[in-house]
């Protein structure tokens, strides 16, 4: 089975597994250094747009990404050639990180506007709505503060406590790291679906055959659905997945038009 591995796929698998072992058992600080942070976070460094895709949140996160590369990568490398396969992986991975950072900046800007609105007019209802929007981040005791603040909205102590809680949410969200090669993998997935659309794949869960183009369509729609729903407790970077799909589709479309250098 492993004899069918192509050079780039094999090296990417070895590098990702090797870095995971080092970061997990020898140098755990690599996770903090190499994860991708919000661009205004104190932990952000430009090289993280590259390094984040070699970090993984756990063994199952690593296995799921590497299994996808193992399944779809070799045939793509044989068809596109090693250089284009590596280009696809890296461009989709880095590009997904860049676009996800823009998406995060947009979300943080909305959060900052809500906090600024409260600062300009410390209204208990504004704070109550803020807590409701971010309820998963608060302990139940926050509702005691909401109740007291609603009864006495001019109390400066309650205003300051509300501001402190809002700033804690901002601090927490601005320092959430993003890791994983999923953006790169989704680029591989969409490329496979575009170049081999009618290839029959057999799913493990549920156990059924499906054509590659329908699998890609399902993943694309599922990703868009999760972006729209925007479940705050979901720690999956769905927008990065979607970004990888879009970038991969653009690259393959360009390569298909430029037939003279396709292989």
UniProtKB/TrEMBL annotation:
Q: Does the keyword Transmembrane apply?
A: yes
Per the database record, which ranges form the Peptidase S54 rhomboid domain? 47-103, 172-253
The membrane topology term of the UniProt record is: Multi-pass membrane protein
Q: Which UniProt keywords apply?
A: Hydrolase, Membrane, Protease, Transmembrane, Transmembrane helix
As for subcellular location, the record says:
Membrane
Q: Which GO terms fall under biological process for this protein?
A: proteolysis
- The membrane spanning regions, by residue number, are 12-39, 51-73, 85-103, 184-205, 212-229, 235-255
The protein's matches in Pfam families, at most eight in alphabetical order, are given as: Rhomboid
MF-aspect GO terms: serine-type endopeptidase activity
**What InterPro entries does the entry give?**
Peptidase_S54_rhomboid_dom, Rhomboid-like_sf, Rhomboid_protease_S54
GO CC term (a single one): membrane
Enumerate the Gene3D superfamilies for this protein: Rhomboid-like
Which family is this sequence assigned to? Belongs to the peptidase S54 family.
Q: What protein am I looking at?
A: Rhomboid family intramembrane serine protease
Q: Which organism is it from?
A: Echinicola strongylocentroti
Q: What is the lineage of its organism?
A: Bacteria, Pseudomonadati, Bacteroidota, Cytophagia, Cytophagales
